[in-house]
Amino acid sequence: MGTRVVTTIGRLAAGVAIAFSASISFAAQPALTEQMEFFEQRVRPLLVEHCYPCHAGNKRQGGLSLEYRSGWQTGGDRGPAILADRPEDSPLLRAVRYQDDYPQMPPDGKLSAEQIAVLEQWVRMGAPDPRDGEAIEAAPGPSGTLWVLEPLPDVTPPQVDNAEWPLGDIDRFVLARLEQKGWQPSPDVDRGAWLRRVTFDLTGLPPTMAEVDAFLGDASEEAFARVVDRLLSSREYGERWARPWLDLVGYADQIGSANNVPAEQAWRYRDYVIRALNAEKPFDQFIREQLAGDLLTSSSIEERQDQIIATGFLVLGNVNIVESDKLVMRMDLVDHQIEKVGKAFLGMSLQCARCHDHKFDPIILQDYYGLAGIFASTESTRKVDRGVWSTVTLVTLPETLAEFTTREAALSAHDREVEEIRQEQALSARRIDEIDRLLETAEQGISNGESATLANASSPEDDRSPAELKQERADLAAKVAACNQRLWHKDYIRPSAPATFAVKEGAEIGNSRICLRGNPHAPGDVVPRGFIRAMARGTGPKIPADQSGRQQLADWLTGPASHVVSRVTVNRLWQKLFGRGIVDSVDYFGARSEPPSHPELLDFLARQFISQGWSQKQLLRELVLSRTYRQQSTATTAASTMLAADPDNRLLWRMSPRRLEAEMIRDALLASSGLLRCSAGGPALAPEFMENVGELDPKSVNPISFSLQRFRDDAPRVRTIYLPVVRSSEQRGPADILNFFDFPQPAQYTGGRPTTAVASQALFLINGPLLQQAAKSLTETLLADSSLEDEEARLHALYRRVLNRPCTPEELSNARAFLGASAPAAPENGSAGADASRHDSWQQLAHALLASNEFLFRL
Amino acid sequence: MANEPPDPHSADRLLDRRELFSWVQAGIGGAALASLLVAGDRLNAAGSPETGVDRTSHWPARAKRVIHVCLCGGLSQVDSFDYKPLLAAHHGQPMPTSEKPDVFFGQVGLLRQSDWQFKRRGESGLWVSDLFPSLAEVADELSVIHSMVAETSNHTPATFQENTGFRLNGFPVLGSWLSYGLGSETDELPAFVVIPDARGFPAGGTINWTNGFLPARHQGVSFRSKGAAIDNLAPAQPISDSRERATRELLSAMNMRHMSERGVDDSLLARVRSYELAAKMQLAVPEVTAISGETAATYAMYGLDRPDSADFGRGCLLARRLLEKGVRFVQLFSGGSFGNPRINWDGHENMVLNHGQEAPRIDRPVAGLLRDLRQRGMLDDTLVLFTTEFGRTPFTQSAADVVGTGRDHNQYGFSVWMAGAGLRSGTTYGQTDEFGYKAIENRVTWPDFHATVLHLLGIDHERLTYYHNGIQRRLTNVHGTLLKDILV
Asked: What SS3 class is residue A382?
């Protein structure tokens, strides 16, 4: 009974936990039985340290390998090393106990009693051992054991009992799983709520009142598809979907985390991602450009620009640009790039293989250094002449004629301003010379015994004392110095040919050596540049001796490894719409990930994704038009079985409700209150304000630094994706919402964000300036709208703007009561005091609505 | 204690009933139902936070609350608490060893004696170096563990391990487990408060106070030691109290009605609860952070009167005040993340400059904290932890034939200490080898350390569990051996 109590309550609590934290990034921790955990924590390290030196790889002393389960099962010269039926007699235990006449192992010293006890315990457990594989000198190759490495099968959507329900193939897969359990999907959500859901999901914004009216006024089934097509072709689509990609890139407007070094050109990459999404750039091309855009051919200047900008993917992470050990710095960057490529495209943690073959996944040291050679043959950073610093490589972009003309015009204006500063400076300098002469004369006069005034000096109008003149001189000198600062600043922001953070083929191209234990100062064997052998069928493209291999890596990802890339990519999009991925750990598809909830569906979609030309829009279109997506998110009492058995909604018996992400909350607040302004993108850091730029002196040993003293006037009103992202501190100014609502630290490359509910969020919503501004603006609009003839109409308008629905009779009476009670009982004679009070009451009402759960959730 | 012990507030009750209802509807068998009812009774019978009744003890708790001082970057054991005469004797010689030590940056220089003098301190005669002159004066309060080992010598995962027992992220930290296991003694402040270094967050940032898979309200809430403790405590533009109250009530009514229409939904419930806590915090936080009322003597005791120790002193003083108000676990970070110049204990280049910069920031404040807790009688049931993610090498990080000035990371042996309730004070536990490199006697892992902390708080580390993804998860995973020898 005791155990049972624990288990039952545990399950109950688990439902609570998952719904509370709804964490995706945490899910990378796979379910391991405690036995396997025991093996991994206690047994494996022991075997690796004490037994592998003579019993693994091509070393099989006494014919025994302990590298895989099959090794000790088959055993060596003395037969199986572990005896399931007589564990105490197992040769392995007798050897480590230094027992009787057995070989004493390890030969160089007996294990500690504790270590022997671990092995004994393991053997008594039945020697649980996850290490599949053959204890032979196998060439690395497809392991065939990990499902994600299998080619994409041609899956036929399953038959379902309830043929009425599915709108398409996706729904058949989902329904079939539910029917297996004897479950039913949830009813469709009402149309208004569907519109709000899909508009948030595809554009990150709520629908406008006009969009709601148009959709509700069109009862046809095609209305759904029309909405989706409209949303997918909006600019806002790219602005919303770029952000999850930037999460994976570790994007920030800062290079590294030391000294606030600005990544002035990072915005070009952010805008590229938005452009690529909006232009429906096929995902395979998107990959190719980001890894090797500089090596591709182009047919226009704009295309060439995008190709170069795209390679910013490889350098806009948490790149260290100051490190005493340059070799380490370089290998760390290479490691960074390998990690990013592994995570973003392959759903794998590759960096373990920097020091040793991956413990669980089929990634070996040679694979890692094969990739390392590619990135080590690529130039990503270069030394600058300020102190010990380097910077990310800046590549000049070709310029269109229009850009050139604009720049020329800007340049002449710039030159005029520079000239003005120079003249101002020269004027001050001349006046300093004058004063110096006056002072000199005066000094001579004094030494000649004349009066201490300058009345007799050469300049009759200047009758000031030397002290006054000295003061003026000091002021002028300060002015000259200030002009220097201004000139340096002007030089920094001089309109110049566009340049971007990008990579190039390195000056030296070649293969890398293995770094023993990951240490670049301990070089091992040279490894030919290449890819991850177990991940693809066949050998993959050959890398010519004079090329880094980035282009071939891109070809490999989109060719021989496309079955992995496609699964990972489809799963990411799925996760953003349904709350969880089909594979829960969206960044990790390895052996220790949990199995997919709908493996056939994932394969089906991944295969279709490739056959439909890697089109994200096409995939998203199909997903949001499914019946699965149309389910309501409320768990009715009829759904209590499913809620109890599947609180995480893994089987998709309803739509999972989700709190909006940080950017969506802010953008929706601005949109609903009428404050939102379009932005065309562009530089984030506002370097044109001198107070935002430090270390301007060219003789400084530190690089130019930025601070966010001043934002542009429109910053509080543009979409959040256009605000600057910093690494070394909390997000600033209008972006401060990111500090409260689970924005990932840009040092991480992550495909999932946790969702927390903590008091600091409540305080932000109640007391922060953003909500107050939004409520104020909303109130002003509503109270000034003369088409709203009475309070009831105004309240409906408020609800429609904020929640996309009219208010219910109950809400109406509650709101009226609130407005009546919170306004002082002043006569309705239009006095200024009563007006102000009425305004305040409305503002508070609007504020409450904007902070409400219904507003903050995408239901 | 395998389940979530709810607060006795209405929202939880509501949840319990709803869940119960849905289970009954689902036709769950009699045994399961009975177990729920039993759980309900137990929880209903449990004390409320206001009365401070310990709800969950597996045995009588020696400690009721914890302050955890976390030194980021790696405190050198051989320069602080682990005295090795042979290190001085072999200064400038290679470490006699058969294999090349495995260190983070790969450079193994010659042995370097400590730049700080070691002395026996207090009645206990505990060895403490002059790196910590003030802590040395309270040496008799300390239980030093000399034989800690970590699984990695990389800051971020090592710091996670120090806080969660796991190197990978995603697991709840110690403070969250305690918040979950013991609840709070106050409903005005979070159970788990974090005070990051005034200069920046530790490696890995806010993940170091994550609730992992535990419910989000067990997440650490970070307080600044300088300026406004938390953001948005007061409205950006002032409004009248009555208006604010009316607005809150309206918002609360909106949310409750929305929730009642939607049925069971924990994410919505969590938000409602976050508003309740926020409202109480608005009153409690300004009060608890108003340290200006403390005496000049207290200021001096915590080092607030000195520029180098004022930051950390404020944090320590704030920590004491938070504990007095019923906060369960306060974690103070000494040191931020990587960067240049260094703002943590990561003395790769020059130990004298680095530890010489960091130690004065915390020495007087931590010693003052121990003294103050002692004089207030709080040390009898408060546990103070002083840890670092790993230690440093006895040899320098330099070429093989050079005595360099910096030390590399060392996961194989390092020192931490505990003080306060239930501990044998003025003692040491475990040993490193004669150079202070590797732990050779009574090796202590983080799960052992965590198990002992839980034990002192009245919790059996094997029974504080939470079901997640098919596993009854524990802070100590499948490990953890109680350090009986350091207990009274």
From this structure: strand
